[in-house]
Automatic annotation (TrEMBL):
It catalyses: tRNA(Glu) + L-glutamate + ATP = L-glutamyl-tRNA(Glu) + AMP + diphosphate. Catalyzes the attachment of glutamate to tRNA(Glu) in a two-step reaction: glutamate is first activated by ATP to form Glu-AMP and then transferred to the acceptor end of tRNA(Glu). HAMAP family: Glu_tRNA_synth_type1 (MF_00022). Gene3D superfamilies: 1.10.10.350, HUPs. Belongs to the class-I aminoacyl-tRNA synthetase family. Glutamate--tRNA ligase type 1 subfamily. Monomer. Residues 7-310 form the Glutamyl/glutaminyl-tRNA synthetase class Ib catalytic domain. Its EC number is 6.1.1.17. The lineage of its organism: Bacteria, Pseudomonadati, Pseudomonadota, Alphaproteobacteria, Holosporales. It comes from the Bacteria. This is Glutamate--tRNA ligase. InterPro entries: aa-tRNA-synth_I_cd-bd, aa-tRNA-synth_I_codon-bd_sub2, aa-tRNA-synth_I_CS, aa_tRNA-synth_I_cd-bd_sf, Glu-tRNA-ligase_bac/mito, Glu/Gln-tRNA-synth, Glu/Gln-tRNA-synth_Ib_cat-dom, GluQ/Sye.
C-alpha cells in the first residue's frame, strides 16, 4: 500500500464536542504513528447551517488539542466534482430520478413499519413512464436522485469491529442528490475520498450502514473499494450509561477549555478511553503517538466521566515541572508565577487557575477569618523572627503546642483560617514563606493584610 492518508471531516454547523474530538484524535494518532498524511476536510455543503464562526472554532479547538493537519479541503469548493460524479452515475444507469414528496415518503415509511417491515424504498420511481416523468416536472416537482444498489453481499474487515457484512437487498437505495441539486454527504464524501487518495476512514459507528452503501458507490464510480480500510469507533456514553447527546453542549471542547482543563489531560483521557490500556496522564502528544495502537480500541461503548477527567487533570498538574509549565502559565495570564511559588503550590491545585487564588492569598490584601482571637493572640508571641526557612512552621507550631497543649486540627486549623481564609490548601510550611512575617502578624491580629 502507498503512504496512508487519513481525514477528519467535521461540519461547521456547531462546536466540536468530545465525541468529535475522540474521532479526530484517533485519526490523528493513527496518521502520525504511521507517518501518514492527515487532512482536515470541512463538510460545509449545507450552506443554510454552516457558519464561519464554527469553522473558525474548529481551527482553534484542534489547535488547542494539539492536532495539526497537513492540508485543508472545503467541500463547498468542490461542487463541480460532485456534479460530474452524479452525471457519470446517471449515464451508467445507477442514479435514478424520484419525485415523491417528503410527506409521501413518510407515509410509505410508516406503512412498512406498521407491517413489521424495514423502511426500504420500494423503487416505484424505476417504473415511471416518460409521460409520468413529464407530468411531475410540469407540476413543478423537482426530482431527487437515488443510487440503485446491487442485491449482493457487501463485506469488509473493519479495523475495530472485525468482519462486517450486509446483504444489499436489505439496504434502501440512498438519496445522493437533493431536490435543490445539492449533493448528500454520502456522495460528496466518497468523491472526496477517491480524489484525495484516502486509504483509512475511521469514524463513528453510526456510519456502519453508510459504509456498506459507500463501498458500492466507490465501485460505481470506477474506483476499487479494496483500496479503502474502514474502522468504526463506538459512541461515548455518560457516566451512568446515558447518551451524551442530551448534554453535549456542556461537553464541547470550547466549554472544557473555558473550564480550565489541560488539553493534554483531555487528549490522554480520550486516547485511552475505550481501550484495554491504563488511563493515566501523559505530558506530551508524542508519548501518546508512541503508545497508540488501533487494535487496542475496543468494541464496547465507553463511558465518559467528568470525574475521571478531573482526576487526570489534577495528576497531570501535580507531575509538571516548572520548566514544562511556564508557557502554559503565560497563556493563562499567570506569567508572574515563579518557580518557588509553583513548587510550593502545584501539588494542591486541580486546574492552573487555582494558582491565582493561592497567589492572591499570599500577595494581596485579605480579610482574615478569625475563629479564636485569644488563641491567635497567643500564637503571635511565638512567631519566629525572619529569615524563615521550610522549618519555621514546625518550629512555630511546636512552640504553640507546648504553651497551649493543643494538637492536631485544634492547633493548626485556626492558624490556616486566619492566614488564608480557607480550610484547605497547600502546605502551610510553604505558604508561610510566601506570605511573609509582616502579613502573618497582621492577619493573626485580625487586620486586613
Amino acid at each position: 500500500m502507498s503512504q496512508p492518508i487519513l481525514r477528519f471531516a467535521p461540519s461547521p454547523t456547531g462546536l466540536l464536542h468530545i465525541g468529535n474530538a475522540r474521532t479526530a484524535l484517533i485519526n490523528w494518532l493513527f496518521a502520525r504513528k504511521n507517518k501518514a498524511t492527515f487532512i482536515l476536510r470541512l463538510d460545509d455543503t449545507d450552506l443554510a447551517r454552516s457558519e464561519q464562526q464554527y469553522e473558525q472554532a474548529i481551527y482553534e479547538d484542534l489547535k488547542w488539542l494539539g492536532l495539526t493537519y497537513d492540508r485543508i479541503e472545503w467541500q463547498s469548493k468542490r461542487l463541480q466534482e460532485y456534479e460530474k460524479a452524479a452525471e457519470a452515475l446517471k449515464a451508467s444507469g445507477r442514479l435514478y430520478a424520484c419525485y415523491e414528496t417528503p410527506e409521501e415518503l413518510e407515509f410509505k415509511r410508516r406503512r412498512l413499519l406498521s407491517q413489521g417491515q424495514p423502511p426500504i424504498y420500494d423503487r416505484a420511481a424505476l417504473n415511471l413512464t416518460s409521460e409520468e416523468h413529464d407530468r411531475f416536472l410540469k407540476e413543478g416537482r423537482k426530482p431527487h436522485w437515488r443510487l440503485k444498489l446491487i442485491a449482493e453481499e457487501i463485506s469488509w474487515k473493519d479495523l475495530i469491529r472485525g468482519d462486517i457484512s450486509f446483504d444489499g437487498k436489505n439496504l434502501s437505495d440512498p438519496i445522493l442528490i437533493r431536490e435543490d441539486n445539492s449533493p448528500v454527504y454520502t456522495l460528496s464524501s466518497v468523491v472526496d475520498d477517491i480524489d484525495f487518495g484516502i486509504t483509512h476512514i475511521i469514524r463513528g459507528e453510526d456510519h456502519i450502514t453508510n459504509t456498506a452503501i459507500q463501498l458500492q458507490l466507490i465501485e460505481a464510480l470506477g474506483a476499487d473499494s479494496k483500496d479503502f480500510i474502514f474502522g468504526h469507533v463506538q459512541y461515548l456514553l455518560g457516566e451512568q450509561g446515558e447518551s451524551l447527546s442530551k448534554r453535549i453542549g456542556s461537553l464541547s471542547l470550547r466549554q472544557l477549555q473555558e473550564e480550565g482543563y489541560e488539553a493534554c489531560a483531555l487528549a490522554s483521557y480520550l486516547a485511552k478511553l475505550g481501550t484495554s490500556e491504563d488511563i493515566s496522564p501523559t505530558l506530551s502528544l508524542d508519548q501518546l503517538i508512541n503508545e497508540f495502537d488501533i487494535s487496542h480500541v475496543g468494541r464496547a461503548a465507553p463511558r465518559f466521566s467528568k470525574t475521571m477527567l478531573d482526576r487526570i487533570n489534577t495528576r497531570l498538574l501535580h507531575h509538571q515541572s516548572y520548566n514544562h509549565i511556564q508557557e502554559r502559565l503565560a497563556e493563562e495570564g499567570l506569567h508572574y508565577i515563579q518557580e518557588e511559588f509553583w513548587n510550593a503550590c502545584h501539588g494542591n491545585i486541580n486546574k492552573l487557575l487555582d494558582l491565582k487564588n493561592i497567589w492572591n492569598i499570599c500577595t494581596q490584601e485579605l480579610t482574615p477569618r478569625i475563629e479564636d482571637a485569644s488563641y491567635l493572640e497567643e500564637a503571635c508571641k511565638f512567631l519566629p523572627l525572619e529569615p524563615w526557612s521550610s522549618e519555621t512552621w514546625t518550629i512555630w507550631t511546636q512552640a504553640i503546642k507546648e504553651k497551649t497543649g493543643r494538637k492536631g486540627r485544634e492547633l493548626f486549623m485556626p492558624l490556616r483560617q486566619a492566614l488564608t481564609g480557607e480550610d484547605h490548601g497547600p502546605e502551610m510550611k510553604e505558604l508561610l514563606l510566601l506570605i511573609g512575617r509582616e502579613k502573618v502578624l497582621k492577619r493573626l491580629q485580625g487586620k486586613v493584610a
